[in-house]
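pinning this so it doesn't scroll away 📌
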Amino acid sequence: MSLRNVAAFLLVTSVIVPAHAESYALLIAVWDYDDSDPRVAALSAPENDLTLMLAALMARGFEGDRIEAISNPTKAQTIDALRRWATQLSPDDRFLWYFSGHGAKAVDVFGADAGDEALGRSPDQNDEALLLVDAEIASPQTYLLDDEINALFSAFRTRNIVCVIDACFAGDVLKNTELGSPKGVSQRESNPRRHAPVADLFDDFADVALLLAAGAYDEPVREITLAIGGEQFVVSPMTFAVYRQAARATARSFLDFHRRIVEDHRAWRNITWRPVLEGPEDRFSEPFGERFIPLDRNATIRLRTKSGKLVDLTHHRVAAVGDTRPLRLGK
């Protein structure tokens, strides 16, 4: 369902004023892309992903007034939000950035550090990028390039940063353009890859931030459909797995958390890709969140159906779908 006329909005419960050594989060989800361009695949999952991730963070001790969620922001709005957080956080604060939406590659001739990819951690000729709501496929300058992402995070006073990227690489978007081929794709391959490697997207910052991505660069990643009570709900597998595991006390460290969401992916039929955890290995043992706060299994969570209806469900009912495995690929 097109939400083209819905403006980007903030879900902030109060003015966010960072305190010392607290956990904060910026959640961004983009699905209202310009579907007049046939090269842009419509996305349904990010709207529900945003709701699921918000619940997951609440279960991990993030206070509601320290979580900022933005739906369908422009590139400028995203940059402004990250710059604001860079000035607000203390060196001891913890910051999590979540993104659900399209990703892309562009030949490395744009941005402030054009040509740097050939000298990076995973040398190639492409910039990795995330696509915000105003991205134009024919204009890589409108993408949020990895050069820009690294510059934004370098301005943060805190280095205690976690990035959770549930972004389609969207190699299909780059067909028949002059932006180059996605990394790891042969010219004979008919299904371009949809995810950039995490170490590429956060090249300069990969030695500092923990990075959880929905899949490796050489794995196709898709949305899935959950069947609940006769309705169908589209979500992203990694975000759904994060939501399920965040509500369980057994998943503690990032390494244990990653292992458990990979187990979910293995259990779900037809899902061949696996989330990846990268970054400084000495941070893998850190806890995911400040503390565990069990979600009320009977509390309401509101998700949107494929047909566009908002439906109230319980946390127990949604999370349990992953146990019975009634999941289907695609929309």
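📌 and the second one:
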Amino acid sequence: MQKRDPALDLVRIFALITVISVHFFLHTDWYSQKVAGGKMLLLVAIRQFLMICVPLFMVLTGYLMNRKELSRSYYKKIGHTIAIYLLASLACLLYRNLFTPKPLNLYESISGFFSFSAAPYGWYIEMYIGLFLLVPFLNLIWRNLKNKRQQLALIGTLVLLSSLPSIFNVVNFQGFFTAEKILNTTKNLQLLPDYWGCLYPFMYYFIGCFIREHRPKLKTRTNLICLIITSAASGIFVFKALYSQVFVSSSLDGHSNPFVVALTTLVFLFFINLNYSRVPAKANRALAYLSSLCLGAYLVSWIFDDIFYPAILENPRVLNRFWMMPIAVLEIAISSLFLSAILDRVLKTLTSINTLFRKRIHAQRSLQKTLLVMTAIRQLDQSN
């Protein structure tokens, strides 16, 4: 049995924290503020760093699943993820219908499961199911690359198609960076194909495959310096692009941004290159358990966003609300993990009941077959 790597558990937990943290910007009206001043520069840089949240999960998927093959047993494993999604969605629906002023009717509730809106953060599951279904075929592509050079060529091609356009296609030679340019108006000069931005999950998946196969080494100090420089450069770039305007969300500041790609890779390498030999076994088990709760916690965190943020919004000054960010993120993370633990226990109970039921059905069928055989033998004896 292969030993569990605590680095991967830490990556998953850290990704959950960054998801909850970046949602703080969404729920505190930060996006309605004009981008100007030192505080906004710092917050833009922090937000850009936090955008590694979902990409970390995608790289982790590539790292863990790069050896999966096309088989019936493989596809059966999606059931666990779907079960977590269904329970988290049910929890969100119950909360919405019982404790919010905008309950959903029966049709909206049922359709929400299929549109991945029953859990408001369920879009990730919609993406993951597609990625999961394609993994065996993506792995066929990866395994048929003959060497490291070809692997880097594949990743580089995906970076070129899905990442670099988010920067190079916002260049405007008639002025500096403007909101019009970011919105890709006719004033922009498009330098790269801009059609394939949706491929970025594959880019991150193959980055995970590459890290798993080659395990690049980077000293912790060097890694941290690179993280600080890249975070600063990313923040300054987006800040200058949006200066004196309300924040305009676009591919420039999204998950496929080249700065986010670099930050995601650096953070992943940071965790896997740490030395975990002195970590106690109990701590490893605790990390493994918390890691197993992260998907459910991510999905139900919307409930606690709705509970905790109204109190933060009572502060009339948006930028001052960020003094509450560490406390809010910690409260939401702990609450979400606790609810996820309850849902995990429910899922395990349902699984146990289902297993017991199937065993009984199997035993009854075996007994029926045995009785039929015995009856047939007795009839043969009587006829003889």
